Amino acid sequence: MNERVNEIIAPGRVAVITGAAKGLGAAVARRLAGEGMSLALLDSDATGLDEFAASLDVDHLKFVGDVSDRTTLERMRDEVYSRFGDVALLVNNAGITKRAGPWDDPARWQRQLDVNLFAVLTAQHLFVPRMIETKRPSAVVNLGSKEGITTPPGNAAYSVAKAGIKVLTEQLSHELLKATQGRVTAHLLVPGYTWTPMNFPGMNAMSDTKPEEPWTADQVVDLFMKRFRNGDFYIICPDNAVTPALDAKRIRWAAEDMIQNRPALSRWHPDWKDEFARWVAQP
């Protein structure tokens, strides 16, 4: 176990979580509350945030607003530091998905890029310098996606945003290592197929029957906590349909498109998809 994690996830320290009213954000918040952390929770759903926050028995602040609105993030930063004087963990979880293709109107792209990429960059800009100055162990966790790694066709705007999150978080990790010698770290959490409102709009986690293939949000958080405590940067989650071995093969094939000079997205290309199927089936 990475001992510095015990100074981050610890009673009395503070976690800032965006998209916190439901899904993965709420699951992370519940787990950290169970560890005795104080919480700052942001969501655009005022009713959902009120209902979720009422279930918590730890000190917390609530912020209702759009994560892509800089003034909302600035207000959150200022109130969190005024109240607690500390941020141990920044979890950039908020995200949206809406299909937009490579030649669609840029207006269809803008909202996804604003929420899924630029809001994360803004949060880092506002919180990370203070986390460095505080001189205590702390961490940033950004929510990526496998769609930002293997970039399957069909949702270009989301894939571009999440590919940007991967690169941004890698760069953040490296620069933090240089600036703090490992006292402040960054981590990329990549869920698999998960039983959350983003993937299942309108779902009711309390009454609806979960399909077999997705993991629950709590399963994702279980793996996150284990891997975070281990100090891992890449935290790539499987699910009940995709094993870690299959994830690794898909990632390797995508990376080798350039090395092998194959067509773009060859996994789905008519001249290569059968070859991919044969290769991935090999033990």
UniProtKB/TrEMBL annotation:
GO molecular function terms noted in the UniProt entry: oxidoreductase activity, acting on NAD(P)H, oxygen as acceptor
InterPro entries: NAD(P)-bd_dom_sf, Sc_DH/Rdtase_CS, SDR_fam
Keywords linked to the UniProt accession: Oxidoreductase
Membrane-spanning segments: none
Record's keyword annotation contains Hydrolase: no
CDD domains tied to this protein: SDR_c (cd05233)
Family to which this protein belongs: Belongs to the short-chain dehydrogenases/reductases (SDR) family.
Name of the protein: Oxidoreductase
